[in-house]
Design a protein that fits this description.
Multidrug-efflux Transporter Regulator, Chain: A, Domain 2, Globin-like, two-stranded antiparallel sheet, 2 strands
């Protein structure tokens, strides 16, 4: 198919398709003698996947990183996108319910609690992107380290103090009040300086401390076994935030 045909089929502009080609995101498999781009069925399948990622809020740069990863599996990606879209639909349903109740409250028909007023809202970093990047070539560790370096010495000192406190507790029970208070300081520090972390994202980050040797190496500089201790403490803290345990 020529570029104009693809644009008509998909509803995206010719300029957008040219841009995808220019950045190496989607390069047509063939070209006519006159220089017109020709898109194969395989190109269309890739484009479909790109548009699913776009619908889920992925920046083009991140999509390219995923597609270029040697571990990327197209069929697995479609299955994951299906799961993510179902989760997005559930979130939208919750937000629709929230706004319907807000309208009812405005009419004096019901009274909403503060919790009900904000049900469905979540402005944390893209959970879909995190899941995909962890599966197909995660560069989050490198980017996180670069982000830390951008902060002033005050933030790094705060981080070091929390690490040191946790390191002094690493041989104790991760469920203890003292350990949970210290990991709570870590949770608050992340949320105050690195965006909003949901309980799930916080627990997933703790697992990454153990799964990724670069994280483990950096954290265990404060004491061998600290990464594992933090993972366990963060999991417990997340469970408490979700109300799964007291």
């Amino acid at each position: 198919m020529k570029v104009k045909e693809v644009a008509a089929l998909t509803g995206i502009s010719v300029r957008t398709l040219h841009h995808y080609d220019a950045i190496g995101l989607l390069t047509p498999d063939d070209m006519t003698e006159a220089g017109y781009r020709l898109y194969s069925d395989d190109n269309l399948a890739i484009l479909q996947q790109i548009l699913f990622f776009r619908e889920l809020g992925f920046p083009l740069k991140k999509i390219k990183e995923l597609l270029d990863s040697p571990t990327f599996d197209r069929q697995e990606a479609f299955e994951m996108q299906h799961k993510m879209l179902l989760e997005k639909r559930q979130k939208l349903d919750e937000m629709i319910e929230t706004i319907e109740k807000t309208i009812q409250q405005g009419r004096g028909e019901i009274i909403m609690s503060n919790e009900e007023k904000f049900k469905g809202f979540d402005f944390s970093h893209n959970p879909y992107e995190q899941e995909a990047r962890e599966r197909w070539g995660n560069e989050a560790v490198d980017k996180s380290n670069k982000k830390v370096a951008q902060f002033g010495p005050e933030i790094q000192e705060e981080m070091n103090q929390i690490y040191s406190k946790l390191a002094s507790l690493r041989h104790s029970d991760s469920t203890s009040d003292e350990a949970q208070a210290a990991i709570g300081d870590w949770f608050n520090m992340l949320n105050n300086n690195f965006g909003t972390y949901s309980p799930e994202a916080f627990e997933g980050l703790g697992q990454a401390y153990v799964d990724d040797e670069r994280f483990t190496k950096n954290i265990d500089q404060f004491g061998e076994g600290l990464a594992v201790f933090m993972r366990d403490a963060m999991a417990v803290y997340a469970q408490k935030l979700r109300g799964e345990i007291n």
